[in-house]
Design goal:
Bound molecules: phosphoenolpyruvate, magnesium ion
Largest sheet: 8 strands, parallel, barrel
Number of helices: 14
Distance between the termini: 19 Å
Shape: globular
Structural class: alpha/beta
Order of helices and strands: HEHEHEHHEHEHHEHHEHEHHH
Strand order of the largest sheet: 1-2-3-4-5-6-7-8
Helix content: 40-55%
Radius of gyration: 20 Å
Number of strands: 8
């Protein structure tokens, strides 16, 4: 067969679906931060957006956007996606996306869902805007940084109240809008079955999961060298989360950086990950790996790799997983 340069090979893949050699389809989604990122999503022929980081709409301005501004913004993204799903993550304020907190350790502080549940004056209008936007196309609502199921139940009850209020006001929304949670705190990964039984999907946020599991600040360059997606502890938490989703019959996605790194694609396929969400530019290469892999061949190898996590061995095993034909 004729060998094409890599960029031509990748371009040829644009309109090919992501399907493994043994016929298992995978959803390849993109992460976006602003509505204008949608052009790149469509160019990459992604299956939709797996992570819309809405906090960027709130940053670098004196006043937060109100419900109507958010509704207009989300609706414009939904329309641009032409029927592909949009996963809207509720505000992940605090930590690296600062809003003027003086907390000395913001990653462990009042961020994301903790902040939203404490200061509902921002959360309520956002939930209303997301639900109203769901009348215009497939929306999945995603909750960041859950660490216990009480938080989850508070959110679910708030969503329920919001739906009742919208109904009373005769404002349209999709009654069956999918609600999912990010698994990015080790405690949530260890108890993923409890989350899975109350949600429509899970999405693993490896950027934070790795930071919290290995106790390394993701924005501190001095401990960068310890940041390791292949640490056995991280791999076990990922596997537990995927298994919890499978047991509950719900899909499990990954939207941290690890999902867009082709070095880990076969590992994650072998673990049973259903959906990968990444920067649009990473998508063609990940698709190329998926389309040249067989899950049937990878699953037993990955199981064995996870059972034998002696130091130094994992990296070697990943290399051989990537080199050979499976
Ligand atoms: C993550 O933590 O992996 C994630 C996707 O969220 P963020 O990078 O926005 O914290
Ligand atoms: Mg995160």
């Amino acid at each position: 067969e004729q060998e094409y340069p890599r960029y031509i090979e990748l371009a040829r893949l644009t309109d090919t679906p992501a399907v493994t050699r043994d016929g298992v389809p995978n959803r390849l989604m993109t992460n976006i931060e602003l509505p204008e990122d949608i052009d790149a999503v469509n160019r990459a022929s992604a299956n939709g957006v797996g992570l819309y980081r809405t906090e960027f709409l709130f940053m670098n301005r004196p006043e937060p956007p109100d419900e109507d501004e958010q509704y207009d913004c989300y609706t414009s993204v939904i329309e641009a996606l032409k029927g592909k799903p949009l996963t809207i993550r509720t505000l992940d304020m605090g930590a690296d996306k600062q809003v003027g907190s003086s907390c000395s350790n913001p990653a462990l502080g009042l961020r994301a869902i903790r902040f939203s549940l404490k200061d509902r004056s921002q959360f309520r209008p956002q939930l209303r805007a997301i639900l109203r936007a769901s009348a215009h196309g497939p929306v999945r609502l995603m909750i960041p940084m859950l660490s216990n199921t009480q938080e989850l139940h508070q959110v679910l009850s708030l969503i329920n109240d919001t739906k009742i209020a919208l109904q009373r006001e005769s404002l349209a929304f999709a009654p069956d809008v999918k609600i999912g949670g990010m698994i990015e705190v080790p405690a949530a990964a260890l108890t993923a079955t409890d989350f899975a039984s109350h949600m429509d999907f899970l999405s693993i946020g490896t950027n934070d999961l790795i930071q919290y599991t290995l106790a390394i600040d993701r924005v501190d360059d001095e401990v960068n060298y310890l940041y390791d997606p292949l640490h056995p502890a991280v791999l076990r938490l990922i596997k537990m989360t995927i298994d919890a989703g499978k047991d509950a019959g719900i899909p499990v996605a990954m939207c941290g950086e690890m999902a867009g790194d082709p070095r880990y694609t076969r590992l994650l396929l072998g673990m049973g990950l259903d959906e990968f969400s990444m920067h649009p530019t990473a998508l063609p290469e990940v698709k190329r790996v998926i389309n040249s892999s067989s899950i049937k061949a990878l699953a037993p190898l990955v199981r064995e790799l996870l059972d034998n996590t002696r130091p130094g061995r994992i990296s070697e095993r990943i290399d051989s997983l990537n080199k050979n034909t499976y």
